[in-house]
Amino acid sequence: MEVRVVNVRKEFERFPALHDVSLDIKSGELIALLGPSGSGKTTLLRLIAGLERPTKGAIFFGEEDASQKSIQERNVGFVFQHYALFRHMTVADNIGFGLKVRHGAARPRAQEIRRRALELLDLVQLSGLEKRYPAQLSGGQRQRVALARAMAIEPKVLLLDEPFGALDAQVRRELRRWLREIHDRTGHTTVFVTHDQEEALELADRVVVMSQGRIEQVGTADDIYDTPNSPFVYSFIGESSSLPVKVENGEVWIADRPIGLQAPHAPSGEAVLYFRPHDVDLLDGCSGCIAGTVAASRRVAGTRRVELEIGGERQRVEIELPVDHPAAQKSRVAFRPRRWKLFPVA
Amino acid sequence: MADPEIKSYEPHHESRSAAVTESRPVRVTLTTVTLVFLGIFLLLPLIIVFKEAFAKGVGAYFQSLGDADTRSAIRLTLLVAAISVPLNLVFGLSAAWAIAKFEFKGKAFLTTLIDLPFSVSPVISGLVYVLLFGAQGLLGEWLKAHGIQILFAVPGIVLATVFVTFPFVARELIPLMQEQGNGDEEAALSLGASGWQAFWHVTLPNVKWGLLYGVLLCNARAMGEFGAVSVVSGHIRGLTNTMPLHVEILYNEYNAVGAFAVASLLAGLALVTLVLKTLLEMRYGAEIAATRGH
């Protein structure tokens, strides 16, 4: 099921949580809503589910306007952050709940409900646990039961709110791979919310980066990482360093020195230079480069991270060196970013 | 599930916890003072109630309970409880549901209002009904013209009892429901359940032990209420006397055995309530711990 969010605005007691957000989700796609807390990602997910109503705008499921439909009518599978399993019901009863509450002819017979529950339990690799209660399961197992329960109603869209947020790192990685497999097998259109960029970039077909109630960028993991379209995305995704610079006649300057970067299309004036700390060329001499005094040097896993003070104003910037690189021993290091981007100062 | 390893962390029973620093005499004194207080103010009166009730033998005890007025008082008390407890069950449940699950204007005011019967003297509560429904009261004329008797009759007693026992169920459920939040209900709705189905299959089972506990307390108070009921009842023997009122009348007539026999029933009710409450707390405590054990 294709989902379109069209110019949606959401206010909570006059406080805007989403400003004019539009998003097209293709059928069968796995989408991540990524952003810091307060960016509106969970609000967007709840709006798609029908747990909230938009203040303005509309949400379409296929050609149908779903925004005025209740959550029951929308037929979405929602997996809650803390699973929200019914603690007084067994695992099998939890999974069968959505079928049990149907009315009339739509409601399968008890035996059929049970068969479906066991089938789904098998899909989430928890066969044999149908008689357990939620309190008797581990976090990862509860998460799987919650997913099986959401899939039992054959939803048009699967929505997951921080699906791995409450789990430890090991289980997270495992479940991530497993969710991808399930998605590929069942083909549900799936949207999940996360604040973990690694999770979003690894798992999703496309990532929606959000900040302060707006969508900053939508794209594949490569798009988002290699061509961030805003200072926010550049600094939020992956490691980044930034320096205040000046653009004059298509050339980038720091204080009174050109640093050897050509920006023929950038407007002249103040700007901020962004680059990845590991994506730099180290230089010996300095004619057209960024040079700085080593202020601090730390060993981080396979690399050495060096903090440099640049120019008279002692701007601090971080770069990464190979562990055995001779520059790490020196007190002055010169470099030039290999890939970089300029954002004019507003 | 209990982790077997936890056992090894249990402190040895022989050694005192390091947190207790008081010397032995101080500890003994404090414990004694507490026990003496409990004995004098709680245990002794209870013993006396039963001792006085059986002062003239088991025969006299049952004879006084068999008295027509006494039996009528017992029936009336049961009737009043049977009406007011379900009313407050429904009210308490809906108020707790509204306060814990929804945001609306005047919520803080409603929460305060629910506590009103706790903070107002029961006599005042009764008096309010007299001012409202009495012969000189606000609605007195109208009620008289339509032949409706509220004061000095069962409706008045029920009204006063409902007012006084108002907060028990709601007070018990509000914090419980607030802590549980809306997640389970939202999950039920997203799975296609109607609001009623979500309430019946999810909300109610989640609070059942707390609800039972509230009802138990509500019932104990409904049967034992004296002040408010005393003002509105009119003390008509055999008609509008509840058990607590009847105890007073019998006692004032120097019928000690009769008074204490009825009192022993009320005390018995209190004991049963306490035992049930303790059992529930054991059960309900484990369940709360389980819901928190993520």
UniProtKB/TrEMBL annotation, chain A:
Looking at the record, the residues that make up the ABC transporter domain are: 3-237
A GO term from the CC aspect = ATP-binding cassette (ABC) transporter complex
- Which is a GO BP term held by this UniProt record? quaternary ammonium group transport
**PROSITE patterns in UniProt:** ABC_TRANSPORTER_1, ABC_TRANSPORTER_2
Q: Which domain of life is it from?
A: Bacteria
Q: Show the CDD domains listed in the entry.
A: ABC_CysA_sulfate_importer
Output the SMART domains linked to this UniProt entry: AAA
Could you list this entry's UniProt keywords, alphabetically sorted: ATP-binding, Cell membrane, Membrane, Nucleotide-binding, Sulfate transport, Translocase, Transport
Give GO terms: molecular function aspect only.
ABC-type sulfate transporter activity; ATP binding; ATP hydrolysis activity
Q: Which family does it belong to?
A: Belongs to the ABC transporter superfamily.
Q: Which PANTHER family match?
A: SPERMIDINE/PUTRESCINE IMPORT ATP-BINDING PROTEIN POTA, SPERMIDINE_PUTRESCINE IMPORT ATP-BINDING PROTEIN POTA
What's the protein name?
Answer: Sulfate ABC transporter ATP-binding protein
From TrEMBL, chain B:
The answer on whether this UniProt entry bears the keyword Cell inner membrane reads: yes
Q: Give the molecular function GO annotations.
A: ABC-type sulfate transporter activity
**What's its membrane topology?**
Multi-pass membrane protein
Q: Which Gene3D superfamilies match?
A: MetI-like
Question: Which InterPro entries does this chain map to?
Answer: CysW_permease (IPR011866), MetI-like (IPR000515), MetI-like_sf (IPR035906), Sulph_transpt2 (IPR005667)
Keyword set includes Transmembrane helix: yes
- GO CC annotations on file: plasma membrane
Q: Which UniProt keywords apply?
A: Cell inner membrane, Cell membrane, Membrane, Sulfate transport, Transmembrane, Transmembrane helix, Transport
Query: Cellular location of this protein?
Result: Cell inner membrane
Q: Which residues form the ABC transmembrane type-1 domain?
A: 74-281
Which residue windows are transmembrane per the record?
Answer: 33-55, 76-100, 120-139, 151-170, 254-276
Instruction: Give the quaternary structure.
Output: The complex is composed of two ATP-binding proteins (CysA), two transmembrane proteins (CysT and CysW) and a solute-binding protein (CysP).
Q: What does this protein do?
A: Part of the ABC transporter complex CysAWTP (TC 3.A.1.6.1) involved in sulfate/thiosulfate import. Probably responsible for the translocation of the substrate across the membrane.
What protein name is recorded for this chain?
Sulfate transport system permease protein CysW
